[in-house]
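Course assignment 3, question 2. Fill in each field.
Student: A.L.
Task: Predict the tertiary structure for the chain below.
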Amino acid sequence: MNKYFPSKIITKKEVLELNLNYALIILNRPIQIKRELIETLWNNSLINITVDGGTNRWLNFLKNNNLENKLKHPTLITGDLDSCHAESLKFFTQTKVIQTVDQDETDFTKCLRVLEPFINELKLDHTVVICENSGRLDHIIANINTLYKNQLKSNEISRPVFMLSSTSISFLLPEGKSEIHIPECAKKLWCALMPIAGPTTVSTEGLKWNMKNFEMKFGGLVSTSNKYDGISDFVKVECNLPILWSMGICDEI
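Answer field:
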């Protein structure tokens, strides 16, 4: 049984108290998550990576919040560097730069590959990726594809990857049984299951609209804009292929 506790990622108090081993990645999208949570996630991660234009986004975030001299520099800057400004590289001059020039993969996919040697070295539990779901549908689909490709890696180098925006958290549930803990204040919000690996047989508990051995597929059934049953603390999902879980998060968290 795979168990997931999103509050351990999106709650400042729990991030501080649990002292988990995780990596933090900044992609090239506006940073709209609350400053306090971003600071906490950044300061408590074991390795911080800004990906190409995400380096500019991070520098802008620091300047806009007067944090240039208060937070540690990124551990690594990765990507093909076609959108990373010279000013950003100059500011983070002490940060190691790993240029990944392969144009057949996204910078996000290549970043996770760069991260692989650190997974066992740092005993990483998971990776948190800061990325708003806005503006570019092609980028969103590419990011989901990266999550799926990461899921296909061996267990030695594959760890859960959580995509965090200001309004949601999304991650892949592997084949088999999973439980997701639902924070109290999120129980009135939306959730979704999407079959990104092809036709997938799914059973659920804890949702308003549960499924029992339903086949989910594009061109058929997908479970967007679902809700919780309002009673259960956990949603249980059983699937025969990896499936994307996404859920709304609330300000109280």
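Instructor remarks: The radius of gyration is 18 Å. The first helix runs from residue 7 to 10.
Grade: pending
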